[in-house]
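Standup notes
- DV: blocked on the single-chain target, sequence here:
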Amino acid sequence: MNHSQPRRNFLRDGLCIAAGVAAGTALPGFLRHSMVVPAYGDEKKAPREFEKRLKELGIELPPPAKPVAVYVPAVITGNLLFTSGHIPFGADGKPLPGRIGQEMTVEQGAEIARTVGLSILTTVRQTLGSLDRVVRLVKATGMVNCTADISQQPKVVNGFSELMVQVFGEDAGKAARSAIGMISLPGNVPVEIEAIFEIEN
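- DV (later): unblocked, structure below
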């Protein structure tokens, strides 16, 4: 009995497979069905369920704020949504004043930044019809009204960023970011934030 025959058959089949794949030729049926490779881009993507996650977190978005000057809340160009700078409003509908390092602490500023994030989500939902059309947060710019001795602007803007990660997850919610100290902001508000989102058209 020739014990080397199975080994030769195995090597022959291996070479045939390699040659067939390299040349793009058809393979025997039993091999072709066992080597089905999905075409690039055919993989099913997990559905985005940001609206569902919002409910699971027990987060209710505030009503949309009306522009207080000559601008629109958001603009879509291509597959990007740009929001205008959003500021916090009090229960009376007026800008909520306060300066970090003066009337407010860094921790209070972070809470305010979170509420600004909620307002941004309202704008995104109103513009797109659903947060599920968001692919990811691309860039956020946080402006912090603070005294000259304050250098913890990133901690203030973290209030916004942590909310985005809660809602959109680590991959889609963590973005490029700037946190900038300002000598003043409109209405003397403590925080103003603008954001750029990649969206599904």
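- Follow-up: Residues 14-44 have pLDDT under 50 and may be disordered.
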